[in-house]
Amino acid sequence: MSYQNNIANTGRQEDVVDKYLLDKLQSILLQDERKQLQDLVSHLHNLRLDVEHLSRDVTEIKGGVFTAVDSINNPSQFESKVSPLINMRVQQLKKNFQQEFGYEVKETVKEELEASRDEFIEVLYPIIGKLVQRYVRYQFDIFLENVQKGIGNTFSWKWWKQALTTFITGESMAAKSVKAAMPTQIEEVFVIQTNSGLLLGYYSRSNTTDPDLIAAMLTAIQNFVSDAFKKDSGNLQTIDHENQRIFLHNFYKHYTATVVSGIADTAVNEKLYLALSDFSSKNVPTAITEIDDSLFNGVSRHLREIFEDFDLT
Amino acid sequence: MKSITKKVILTGSFSVGKTSLISRFVYQSFSAEYKTTLGVKIDRKTVELDNCIVNMMIWDIGGEQNQARVPETYFLGSGGVIYVFDISRPSGFSQITDDIAYLTAKLKDVPVVVVGNKIDLLDVVTLEEVKQIIPVSVDFYTSAKEGTNVENVFTHLAQKLVNESQ
């Protein structure tokens, strides 16, 4: 019995050992699979969490869409939400309009103006005409006022003085009044070689575009006139242009053309002639072989010195 | 650099291309449209040479049948003359000798440059044939239309003007 028990005990022990060894073997062999299984379980768990999140997001979006649809169906609600955005954009446009659309607007306006130039002129012409008319009337009023002042001095000391001058010089008081209203001024002086028409010297209050060409053209006009009327001895003496008069004075081998604005009468002409005659004898050489910079600059400098502040009254 | 101003006369019969030569020289342009010059037209052009700047006041005189009909006053004070004739119009050649004689008599010691214009209207062979029958010595053959030799005419005259003044 005890033998049989011993055998039975021994058999159980062996079974236990076998089982232990089998488990150990299994553990060793399935180690990698078990790890993969654990990873898979972990991954599955994460996926489940993601799906739950997505599900929540979809629910929220669905809610948002329902709200938007409700807002669109309800204009007042929609307007209250959209208006602030539009207002903000409008303000931005107002602020940056020049930068964003300035060029396009400028080009469009330019094209439109060019395309309808005639229409514009037609519309503006009467307006400009009125402006010019108003300006002329204003200037005329000033002129009348000045003449009036002159007449207003009648029998004053000034008047008696003018009357005395009139008696001596023979110049009328009316002419004196007009002269006082429109000051006489030298605008330009050209000193021109008679035969060639080349410029020997030049003075101008405001620079003319091409004094050389003007000198040549003035000479050509003189030539034309003397040729047309077949008179060698006669000379052109004045040329009138608007409120300017060109006085032409002839000297030995040159002549001068003086542009005078304002009242330019015989007395002015005489005064000019005396001054230019004196100037010519002192500053313009009679024997000129060549017109170069030094000659031109010298004559021009002297012209400026004498005629810049020359008093013609 | 020294700078001088001279009056230059551009003359010749009518329709020989005087104004076209000026347009080509001064404005680098040419127009086939013919407009007769009435009286005189004045232009200026500055030619810069090695030793001097020459400011040329060019008087383009309206064409006349012969030079004796040009108002004498236009010639006064000239520093130089450019006489132009039409190389494609042999009928006008007979006048050239008289015209040049008249100019040299009127403007003593003034350089005269003789120019045959419109060479673009002739082919090379015809041009050589025509050259043989021109009664005077020609300084330049030009084409205002194509710009051939135009610049040379004025530069040559500018140099002569400088030489005269020295």
CATH fold-level assignment of the largest domain in chain A = Beta-Lactamase
CATH superfamily of chain B: P-loop containing nucleotide triphosphate hydrolases
Query: Approximately how much helix is present in the residues of chain A?
Result: over 70%
Output the radius of gyration of chain A: 55 Å
Radius of gyration of chain B: 15 Å
Number of individual domains of chain A? 3
Query: What is the total tally of β strands of chain A?
Result: 6
What is the assembly state of the chains in this entry? heterodimer
| Poorly predicted runs of chain A | none
Number of helices of chain A: 9
Mean pLDDT of chain B: 90
Q: At the first level of CATH, what is the class of the largest domain in chain A? A: Alpha Beta
Report the principal-axis shape of chain B. globular
What can you see in these coordinates?
- The complex is a heterodimer of chains A (313) and B (166).
- With 313 residues, chain A is of the alpha+beta class.
- Chain A has helices spanning 2-29, 31-73, 75-115, 117-152, 157-169, 173-181, 211-228, 266-283, 293-307; strands at 185-193, 199-204, 238-241, 244-250, 254-261, 291-292.
- Chain A folds into three domains: 2-59; 116-181, no CATH class; 186-307, Beta-Lactamase (2-Layer Sandwich).
- In chain A, 71% of the residues lie in helices and 12% in strands.
- Chain B is 30% helix and 27% strand.
- Chain B is built from four helices and six strands; from the N terminus they run βαβββαβαβα.
- The two termini of chain B are 15 Å apart.
